[in-house]
Amino acid sequence: MFKPFSALTALVLIAACAGETTPPVTENANSSEEAAPVPVYPLALPEATSVEITEEDLAVRIRTLADDAFEGRGPGSEAGEKAADWIAAEMERLGLQPGGEDGTWFQTVGMVDQTVDEAASGLTFSGGESDRDYPMVLKEDAVIWTKHQEETELSFSDSEVVFVGYGVVAPEYGWDDYAGLDVEGKTVVMLVNDPGFATEDPDLFKGKAMTYYGRWTYKFEEAARQGATAAIVVHETAPASYGWDVVANSWSGAQADLVRADGGAERALLEGWITVETARKLFAEGGLDFEDMKFAAKQTGFTPVDMGGLTASGEIQQTVSRATSRNVIGVLPGTEAPDEYMLFTAHWDHLGKKSEDRTGAPGQDFYRDDIFNGAVDNATGSAALLEIAEAMAAGEHPRSAIFVSVTLEESGLLGSAYYAENPTVPLSQVVAGINMDGMLPLGRSKNMVVIGYGASELEDRLAAVLETQDRIIEPDPNPQAGYFYRSDHVSFAKEGVPMLYADGGQDLLDGGVATGKAASEVYTVQRYHKPMDEYSTDWDLSGMVEDVTALYTVGRDIADSGDWPEWYDGNEFKAIREASLAEAQE
Ligand SMILES: [Zn+2]
Q: Are residues 213 and 245 in the same domain?
């Protein structure tokens, strides 16, 4: 996930690492003569692959993309961008057509890296009942950053602090945490997740299942819309579904973002998280009780609460560097309705090479090297995307298929956000999409898990296909964690496109749920976002073949039909879709 997590995808494998490299070549024999082939050094394209979805085809692509030669596919890095070249060359070999800028395979994505100088930056609360100053110890009490990309020095002082509950404005739920308050110039403090999580009332928001309003990304976007000078989210492990260590790690070091047209000027000057312990102290200083305020925040009709005389002052010194990365886009034109598209997505980027110390705890040897190979995350999804393209290219389909291999997912879904804001085909002509991120080689399972289950008719189609495989669909086991919002499909969903994100389940044919669950935890602890996420010839890809076949079948059937699958009634993206289709009709 970008940052803390990427999706449920966190399932497992137990394997020794592989990583043998293949000799470099310069030319791929299968490409068409006219267009100059994309260079594929340092790794060759597969000698031959079949139009069927097979373990061998998946294995050769996963092994290649997870090879040390691509140095963990860091976006904007020389070795990382070579992985994008390789994917483009593979699309060319499979007979797709370039779908990027100016007839190329690529869409350039401008990015910035912002690094806060923690020694010269700070956030201090003052003016409370004890009239003491509370300078935040960064990483311990708080993490801070800015989305302003132009300035290297930013500061504000004596900004009034206001508690705005969950910081949500949701007209469809009749909810407005900013009701009646102008927060221009103020500092807003808010809770993570949404009132539905807090009350578990299925009629409030989506009950336990996190809505986009529960995501920290939404809260900072809304605080910016409201004009706040600083926006602070209180971290609590249960509603966030991760510990403070994840927050401290994720927001340390360089933070990537898209180059923003306004340089990020419309965002709050300072954004950050504070620990719940810090929050309790600050609320007390404001003459309030944190638990009482939490209780008030989940009540319908909540209105913002002034935190006594508490004020905030902040200063950020940062370095800003700029780079570019690329989305890779291939198209398979339809024969009858070529301007209607079935979309497939998967991110190619991962964490690259990291220079931070590798010591780790004694015995924890998964810090054996400094390359984050990203075999599961997301060489598997990228291999699945190419394998589906190959199967689709073996036949003709009335509608077009578009394959978008996005960059910068690990930095905040930036490549897909950029594509969704700058689509190479109108999104109103994209019938539906399927995203693949982190498919675990567990062997065959009796089920597939749909992240964000209960969203669209795509699930009915998947359920029907799984039935032919004698398998069943399983709802997201952790809806409160909001995994639906943590991979690239959400960038398209936010523009209205019905998106499916499903993965192999944990109910294994061999060993059942117990084995599946146990294997998941091992992966999450040992390999997820660590150098040990490496490919191994031990991998059992039989389950992945079934999962990819199911997703391919759902997509192919839509490309062969005239149907327009829809979001279910009440879904938060349905209105956006209806508006975008209506606009396209005008
Ligand atoms: Zn991923």
A: yes
